[in-house]
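thread from #wetlab-drylab

HS: before we spend reagent money on co-crystallization trials with PTJ, can we at least see a predicted complex? here's what I'd submit
DV: go for it
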Amino acid sequence: MKIPKSHPRHESLRTRELIAEGVENGITSIHGLIAHGRGEAFDYLLREKTHGFAKKSLEAAAAMLLAAKHPVISVNGNAAALVPKELAELSGLINAPLEVNIFHPSKQREIKIKNHLEKHGAKNVLLPSKKYNIKYLKSNRKYVNLEGILKADVVFVPLEDGDRTEALAKNGKKVIAIDLNPLSRTSQKATITIVDNITRSIPLLVNITRQYKKYNKYKLNIIIKNHYNKKILNEAIKKIRNL
Ligand code: PTJ
């Protein structure tokens, strides 16, 4: 459906359209529609804009991704539908693989997500393997790739379910999450939480990462050390309360 640019809810409708298309093309799970609706509700409460607290998290996230030994970007059906080109760009910038990791099991959907990312410029897309799994997790998301999540020290999980964030942390990994809901378990358990819409924040993350690429490890580590996730989450909750 073509949405006129002049429509006051253009961006929100465009995003809905991408998710609906994702479902039609077998990339996004039908449950992804519900997750998207929940995200929309929180985005509405956040006035559909990227706040200062999200910008601070984005800076810390860029520094952590650049300072990591083995960073990896985990991709599910919603993220793939919404920002495939930007995820491919980020992967190239930090030299990290994109790894398909989905909650609702479907080999066919995994392959479709991989193809979709490659169509948008991704050069290194990994699929999970039943041979390898992370501990403390029962769902399909436990299956990982040896060259990706299994050996990663930093896992970027845009749009997540709480169980895995918690499990990844227990497996000794640092987790960077994007979640519009500052109260979710993902937000609470991640090392760095970006409380913002994935559609606004991934392009910003690409720009900041490009800028920070010239920083040395010392400078990156200072940025990481000065990030206090609980403080960021409290700022986001306060913003929602003070409507
Ligand atoms: O492709 P699959 O099978 O891995 O399924 C993906 C979903 C998203 C369906 C699955 O991970 C899931 O059920 O997630 P949850 O538990 O509903 O959590 C999704 C979280 O993402 C919620 O806290 C939403 O507020 C948040 N969210 C939704 N849309 C956006 C978002 N956060 C940022 N940007 C969005 N566009």
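DV: The mean pLDDT is 96.
HS: ok that's useful, forwarding to the group
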